Amino acid sequence: MLIQQIGNGVFLGAVYALFACGYALVFGVLDILNLAHAAIYMSAAFIALALAGAGVPLLLAIVLAIIAAGLLGILLDRVAFAPLRRRNAGTLAPLISSIGVAIMIQGIARAFFGSDDQPFPSGTFATAQLQIGSLRLGVVDVTVLGVAIAMMLALSSVLRFTSLGRSIRAVAADRIAAALLGIDVERTIALTFFIASALGGAAGVLIGLEFNSVSVDMGARIELKGLAIIVLGGMGSVTGAVVGALLLGCVETLSVAYISSGYRDAISFGVMFLVLVLRPTGLFGRRSLRAA
Amino acid sequence: MYGGSLLRLSLFSSRLGVFTVAAIVAGLSAALASNGALAAGTAVKIGVIADVSGSAAAYGMSQKNAYALATEDLKTGKLDAGTASVTFDVEDSASDPAQVVTLTQAFTNNGAALLVGPTLSAEAKKADPIAVAAGLTILATSNTAQGITSLGPCVFRDSLAEEQVVPETVAKIAGTWKPKTAAIIYGDDNQFTKTDYEIFAKALAEHHITVVDVETYHTGDVDFRAQLTKIAGAKPDLLVVGALVDEAVKIVAQAAAAGVNAHIVGGNGLNSPKFIQLAGRSAEGVVVGAAYYAGDPSPVNAGFVQRYEHDFGIAPDQFAAQAYAAAEVIARLAHDGATSSAAFCSGLKSVHVATVLGPLSFDATHDASAPSDVMIVSKGRFTLLK
Amino acid sequence: MLAFFAQYSKLVDQAGINALLALSLSLSLRAGHLALAQAAFMGIAAYVGSIGAVDLHWTLLESTFAGALAAGIAAAILALPVARLRGIFLAIATIGFGEIARVVEINAPITDGAEGFSDIPNDAGTLAIYAALLATVAALFLLGRSKWALAIAATREDENAARGCGIDVGLVRTTTLVSGAVIAGVAGVLYAHANFFITPGDFGFPRMEQILVYCVIGGVTSSTGAVMGAAVMTALPETIRFLHDYREVTTGALLLAIIILAPGGLAQLWRRHA
Fold first, then answer.
1. pTM (2 decimals)?
2. Which domains can be identified in chain A, with CATH numbers?
3. Closest to B293 in 3D by CA, of B375, B351, B184, B361
4. Contact state of B31 with C196 under an 8 Å Cβ cutoff
């Protein structure tokens, strides 16, 4: 059972990781905790659902939903964060701003889609199972894991090898110096939000597919877990977010398996608390963004 | 030095305070005025509080639909209230207990003869005492926790409590499949699912079925593999699912993949067409003990199901049925002349109505006295378990 | 006016309790600390007070005292590990504390967990709530006149400079956290005694977000702002009831509008026009 449970933990962690990357990216670059990230995660899932329901082939629907999420992220920045940046409004104001946008997005989604859990149209994907040794895997789970890893590798390459990546890291390190060096800061920030929100949106679509359910409230639970993950991994570090997510996925799964499912959340947050207290920079963090 | 700023502080804060209070009073008075006065004569106003939005919206929406249908049926004569003109004033409490409290207080003041609702037991425990203190009779249609009808002398409910349904369900399963062991998975942060667990545990013990594993989850969870893998390791004959629809669907869908080879049984929470729709093939063979059987061929129910599907595009679930049954009872009492809260209270004590739930009346503790149904999902539909 | 009160006295009570909660958070915010554990303190006090009232037959006064004390002690204990945390880290740690508290409340047998704790004597009326509110406002007013207010403001503006001036920043943090917790504790007990019934879900992250919104809408750095924010947001669902399905969107839009156009909250808006 141990291997199966670790496997479960890894699958759980993979999608957490995709979600947490977006959080970590925005925090690393802007020192902002974007509480609307979970709302974008949820919106992407609904967009994919709506497109698939309208007959768009699944793969295309997913890609379009992820792009839509990215655009939503740019819009979020324009509306909720940019005006505050111009004013140097500190850390509390953007937090509240993001809460406002999150509530609005939820309200709109609820008006359009209702409050029920909604499934993808039947026959959308295969439900086959694989067996490797004593490990039982679903085809969907493996696909999700694969896509998550691919996206995170892509992010890592962008950050490390492209000029956009360099701009992002520069803005994260010192916004004013970056501007002085001729980097278009606002454009870099907009692109950062695009990438972060696209990743969050991808997480939403993948989770929606993996568990075949999309609902307006799906963001709430993962939002707090996302916080625990970036603390564990180190705020602002994308590698940290990934490692932290996998770690948390396993901690949660193993604590259910060997301790008690009732205290699962307490253990997760307890671990987070401990890390914050003993090593506030987390496993990998420095306050500034590090290349993955 | 402080004196001047103190004066300024108290001046503008008092102006500020007055302004704010004035704005709020104006807004609330407008809301109060819009509630409207009660028409004289045989008009009967029924106050309905339902969570039409928010986390419990799936249930509140069904309830709102049922009252919309009931209103339509009153007009076309399918529901007969005699010479009385019954109106359902459905208010959305947005799954917020604070709003339930405020709405309850509002209904005690604006001429409602009966309060129907609220949707959740936790809300009822906070708000019902207010109605009780004001002498407003309450008819709940979806509160299944313990201690609801004991909140006052005129608190009734037409929703069968789990403790009325589960023992019969377990008895039937014990007879049919003769299981020796069982595992239970339930939501530990929700009143309904937790009560479900306790009642199932008790019923299993009474039939000498050993509980080999108990797992919990939290509302909103989507991944149950950890718990299900552990349960699979304990190899139970029976898996009891104490859950509401959203989580039940995922538990059932993930159970087979996790290696659980057991008969699955659940309570009221699974009694919804959505359960079958979302769980698909994994719902086959799941036993559900519930208070409403949508396939009941009686003319009252068949007509209701058909009209509901026509109006709302989906078959009615238990919440809709229980709400509609309340409307049927109210129509009967209004027909027989009840217009005040006291009249409804005494009327409910002795009423017998053939409703979509079956023949319905209220017992000595003001709980529903109606048949319960043990159903099994067979070929994509709920059918009665023989 | 009497008819208004008969119809809305419960709403008025809620506004009073929410005002207390907003005030408790505003203390930490005034010191520049994003300590988001108010809902947890409220919950701890609510349970201590309720269990005492039901099982030990405490009076309202005894419940309130015990609840506030429990909240204060919890805050003092929490202050130790989070002493070195700043900004968002502090926020996340305190949110985590809140989640842990909620899970303990769900699982501890003495609280009846998710089934909720019932039969709490309903002896906290409008008088009791507003007496507590008035007392708190008065206490904060006196605080505003003392040297403590300067220390708190200095800590918010620049912690290092404040330390350089000889202000014990750690003491300021702990004191604002503990006194805020005590106020939240009083609010928690009153909440329990006004509502007959409490569940752990009443004191989780959504409640914390609500309290934060009260403070921000009203204006983070003043008592008046906190009270106003609480009053407006408590009444909002009722005043916009005519919007039906669009209430949620409107609330979010309002929040966004205030933070973008008037970040100092309603208090700032008034000052501009005063």
1. 0.85
2. 2-115+128-278 (1.10.3470)
3. B375
4. no
